[in-house]
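Reading group handout, session on sequence-to-structure problems. Before we discuss, look at one worked example. The prompt was deliberately terse, the way you'd type it at a terminal:

> structure Cytoplasmic dynein 2 light intermediate chain 1

The input record follows.
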Amino acid sequence: MGSTRKTVWDLGIELGHNRSQTVAKRSLLFLGSKQSGKTSIIHRFLDKKDEPKPTLALDYSYTRSDQSENQQCDVWELGEATYLLKLLPFVLKEEQLKSMAIILVLDLSKPHELVPITECLLNTISMRISPFMKKHSEDRRSSISKNKSERRSSMIKKLLPDITIPIIIMANKYDLLQEMEPEDLKLISKYLCSLCQSQGCSLIYTSIKRDQLVSRIRLLLKKHGFNEQTEFPEARFDYTKPIWMPSESDPSNLLDGDSLEMLKNMMIKRWKPIEIELKLPDDPAKDDNFKERDIDIIRSQRYQELENYRHHMDHKTD
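And the output record:
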């Protein structure tokens, strides 16, 4: 008879399978413009000490909860999101929506980017999610129509989609925002608060150079990454201080009756917005941030071989 003893390989596969069945996973998706600070914020969340490098396309990492080994947070980061948005379907999948939060990282030191970047990202997210929301609503409607005994009020309630994706706008580099004129600072804060109110987003001013704000970032990401119950301070709309606006709060006192459209036009008039171009990034092989000695040597050799072959073919045709 053959031996029934399990090998180390068998035990490893079984252990991995058991872990995959018991680990509760949630996801964080980071989007934003180039050099807005996405990677730096992620490094603070993951307690990484190495120097952040620019993200080329779509980066993945994960972390486990301090409170439980069975809680895992998958962290996705899209590089310069204005030209990499076609990669969103690889992350924004229907089965992940109920356990995902989306973080839009903005650069407060570049007010001319705020309007076009936020509109581009929010519109793209909406277009990606809308089909799933519509399908979910239709499924709920079909389910309700089969049960004629339900009251109308209950039916209306159940038609509302269960899928809600928290969207957090992290307005980063707050330390640089303070160097602006008070009226400019107020306009930016009013626009972002009005935008978040209209879209149902949360807003938080951040800076990796301030320990208090870094702690707040970590608490917020742990809340959405591990579903931890965390106590946060009440909403703060004082534009002379770091703004904190939960999605359900009302910034009316700050807005003074100004509409989003009015504030948007004021932003555009004050700072000429950038044009969103779907252009490819520079060749990372020539970027000093991505030096890899062994790979670079092999690459140079291959380039030289190709160049020699090209010269050979040119002489041959002559």
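Points for discussion. First: The chain is about 45% helix and 15% strand. Second: Residues 67 and 228 are 9 Å apart (CA to CA).
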